[in-house]
Amino acid sequence: TSDTLFHLLKGSLGTGILAMPQAFMNAGYVLGFIGTFVIGFLCTYCIRLLIKSEYELCKRRRVPSMTYEATAKAAVLEGPKWLRPIAPAVP
């Protein structure tokens, strides 16, 4: 929906958008555009990875959906054995 798109844009851009003119002034147009696309790609990749992880953890736990916090905790609990002891500290 449009609300989802708005929240995604707001979360990705945030107040950092106010620093874009200064960043372009320091980096130049070419490097600024390249950097913007690289960061945009990385953000998109990370969001996609988070959604795929949440989907896989929902299937494993047989729940319809999970919050971000529940996804993080489940990922730590089902992750590598050396990481599992810190699961109680994950919100």
Automatic annotation (TrEMBL):
Membrane topology: Multi-pass membrane protein
Domain of life: Eukaryota
Transmembrane segments: 29-51
Protein's organism: Bracon brevicornis
Localization in the cell: Membrane
InterPro entries in alphabetical order: AA_transpt_TM
Keyword Transmembrane helix: yes
Species lineage: Eukaryota, Metazoa, Ecdysozoa, Arthropoda, Hexapoda
Keyword Repressor: no
Keywords: Membrane, Transmembrane, Transmembrane helix
Entry GO MF terms: L-amino acid transmembrane transporter activity
The protein's name: Amino acid transporter transmembrane domain-containing protein
